[in-house]
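Hi everyone,

Forwarding the result from last night's run.
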Amino acid sequence: MIATGVIVEYNPFHNGHLHHIRQSRKETNADIVIAVMSGHFLQRGEPAFVDKWTRTQMALASGADLVIELPYVYATAQASDFAKGGISLLEALNCDFFSFGSEEGSITPFLNSYSLLQEHNDTLQQLVRNSIQTGISYPQALNIAYKQLIPNNEQSFVDLSKPNNILGFHYIEAAYKIQANIKAVTIQRIKAGYHDAIGIDSSIASATGIRKAVFEEASIEGISSYMPQTSFKGLEEWQYTNASFGSWEAFWPLLRFTIIRHTPQELSTFAEVTEGIEYLLLSAAKNSENFANFMQQVKSKRYTWTRIQRMLTHIFTGFTWERLKSFEQPSYIRLLGMTENGQKYLSANKKEFTLPIISRVASSDDAMLMQDIQATDLYMLALNGPVNTKRMGLDYKTPPIRM
């Protein structure tokens, strides 16, 4: 059986994701599509729009055969570590291919760019350091340095100012670094850009645009044409049973409390909190009644919105620098859901997997898994408040979804 992997958030699952799964299956002639999906907190430092089991159901209904959880430590990390976690899990699952969406749409420019940066890595790092000293963010400095290294020849190189291209490059980089056997494929991202708002003349919209529309309109009715019917039904069910969709604005009271209850010295121990920003975080939390106002006080040229949100995620979940440094690579395969076809793949190939499969979390005390379980409880608490005691310990109560 040919297995193709994708590394995803599905926040929420929409028609663009459906196109990616279908094209990935077609391009690789795959019998199985395996989705490694983030849990309750995401790479841009945000709470998930809906929980991981709702998103698992959306994925299984629209073409994924297996959904595996990307552990918190990687799901909330910078792009290189996010990619490392995802690619390592797909390699452990014995996938033949990994497929990612990109603005580029062709794999050759990614391979050329990787070779270029490997060959000139020392020069690249010096150029980055020089740019950062001017006060710009690391991603901006990296892109400037990269452009300075591109030779004037007939080779094609990928545009690393585009968000999906950047992530795709890190997937390629991760595969080389771990000496993976898995092969890379990229699918052209169509119509909607990563940050684009929804448009009336298309059935494709970005997840960012969909979430923005829901929060601005306080309704999901306007987004039904941008996602499969099964995904929209999942959102309807979520809205019926939950106080809100996941967002920092909704979580702000509890996030604010969490920041204010710590001293600056304590805040500095949490992952990604650096260079004295803990004082600004504390001051802004005390003086902000909502999340938007807080971010306006904290954001700067040096600290991107995404980087700040990742700091806040780690503060909220209690994830420290010490704990981050204790994890070197994924240590398990956490099964969230499967189709009948996916179950057949597991049965036929499990002896070849290089990591243990966890379908019942009670059977493991892995420290990385305990972080995922804690993240779930905190997400549920912030979502519906302290009266929502029935949703504590959901990781122990929820078996893998079968479809």
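The first strand starts at residue 3 and ends at 8.

Cheers,
N.
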